[in-house]
Amino acid sequence: MDKITVSKLFELYWDTLEMCGKDTKLLSDELIGYNIFEEFIVGITSFLAPNSLKRLIDNGLIDEQIYKDSEHLRSLTLKLDGTSRWNVKSFKNSEEWNEIIKLSDKIKKRLRENGLNKI
Question: 28: phi > 0 → left, psi -120 to 50 → alpha, else beta; which?
Fold first, then answer.
């Protein structure tokens, strides 16, 4: 299997972040379920994995703060996976999910400030 290019990795990293944000709460329960519990979790485990983040920072696509925030986002999300908070109602209302949402939005904002959207 071929290794994905760094530009494709960044696109998938960005797409993962886009799945989770304050605007996600406005979606239907069905779309929240799909975005968070199918797409976001896959991206968190794959495109925010340590080796993926290392490739992104080594290639100048993320800075040290984004790297640390991405690690923290991954950790917070994986702590919730499989718990009683892993559902749409909790996504909309729990403090744990609010922290994840705020962190995802913070990372996206910093990427935009650095001039990085999808490449």
Answer: beta
Residues 6+ apart with CB under 8 A from 28: none
Phi-psi region of 82 (alpha: psi -120 to 50; beta: other; left: phi over 0): left
Q: Which residues contact 98 (CB under 8 A, 6 or more apart)?
A: none
Q: Which backbone phi and psi does 48 adopt, to 5 degrees?
A: -115, 15
**Which residue's entry shows tokens 């993926």?**
52
Question: For residues 111 and 29, what is the distance between their CA atoms, to the nearest angstrom?
Answer: 28
| Angle at alpha carbon of residue 3, lines to 59 and 60, rounded to 5° | 5
| Per-residue confidence (pLDDT) for residue 2, from 0 to 100 | 59
Choose among 68, 79, 82: nearest CA to 110. Answer: 68
pTM over 0.85: yes
| Per-residue pLDDT reduced to its tens digit, 28-70 | 999 999 999 999 999 999 999 999 999 999 999 999 999 999 9
Q: Confirm if 70 and 50 have CB atoms less than 8 A apart.
A: no
